[in-house]
Amino acid sequence: MANNNIKIVCFYTPNGNYSDMANRLKKSCDALHIPTDITQANDLGSWVKNCGYKSEFIRSKLANIEDGESILWIDSDAV
């Protein structure tokens, strides 16, 4: 059963194995028919700075949601 009102949003950096984890999250969401917007972002130089970018990233996604759509942030390494 698809829930097209919720879109999972996430970014990951190219360092470490975050790309693999983001792909795993995408596959999990695809299997559940949950739309995603998973984006590779530039590494800002530290884990703290990368985490600090979340609020800006989420705010940009909120500014561009469609009527009736909700977004949900999930870390790429949550799956």
Structural description of this entry:
- With 79 residues, the protein is of the alpha/beta class.
- The protein has helices at 18-31, 47-62; strands spanning 6-12, 36-40, 70-73.
- A 3-stranded parallel β-sheet has the order 2-1-3, sandwiched between helices.
- β1 (6-12), α1 and β2 (36-40) form a beta-alpha-beta unit.
- The longest helix is centred in the last third of the chain and has 16 residues, at 47-62.
- The mean pLDDT is 92.
Question: Summary?
Answer:
The protein is α/β, with parallel strands linked by helices. The chain has helices spanning 18-31, 47-62, and strands at residues 6-12, 36-40, 70-73.
What is the fold's blueprint, element by element?
Layout: E1 6-12, H1 18-31, E2 36-40, H2 47-62, E3 70-73
Structural class, judged by helices and strands?
A: alpha/beta
Largest sheet: 3 strands, parallel
The percent range for strand residues is 15-25%
Shape type: flat
Give the radius of gyration.
Answer: 13 Å
Strand order of the largest sheet: 2-1-3
**Series of secondary-structure elements, N-terminal to C-terminal:** EHEHE
Helix content: 25-40%
Mean pLDDT: 92
Uncertain residue segments? none
Distance between the termini: 20 Å
Count of distinct strands: 3
Can you count the helices?
2
Tags for this model:
3-stranded parallel sheet; flat; 2 helices; 3 strands; single chain; alpha/beta; 79 residues
